[in-house]
Specification:
Blueprint lengths: L1 E7 L6 H18 L3 E8 L4 E7 L2 H7 L3 H11 L8 E6 L3
Antiparallel strand pairs: 1-3, 1-4, 2-3
Helix pairs in contact: 1-3
Length: 94
């Protein structure tokens, strides 16, 4: 399994709107993105992380160039961010 971790700096005032974006696109992500297995929202005081599970690293990379990500998710989240996201892809060792 591969994980795509996107860490976002979102001011507390914008976190409700950001959570709504997460909820709106979780279903379409799981239903339409090749290899998508899971999606979780992780919240800390200093940032928010979205952890996506995929079958392969290639599928995780492909998601980052998909219309769902580039147009829909980034389009809605962009104005809510307080900086550039940190994007990382990890392969899980079992």
């Amino acid at each position: 399994m591969t994980f795509l971790e996107i860490t976002l700096r979102i001011p507390h005032a914008n976190r409700g709107a950001a959570a709504a974006v997460y909820q709106r696109y979780k279903g379409p992500f799981l239903e339409t993105i090749a290899g998508a297995r899971s999606k979780q929202l992780l919240v800390r005081e200093e940032d928010v992380q979205v952890l996506h599970g995929f079958e392969t690293a290639q599928q995780a990379g492909a998601y980052l160039t998909s219309d769902l990500f580039t147009k829909d998710v980034v389009g809605e989240l962009g104005p809510l961010l307080a900086g550039e996201p940190d994007v990382r892809i990890y392969d899980a060792v079992e």
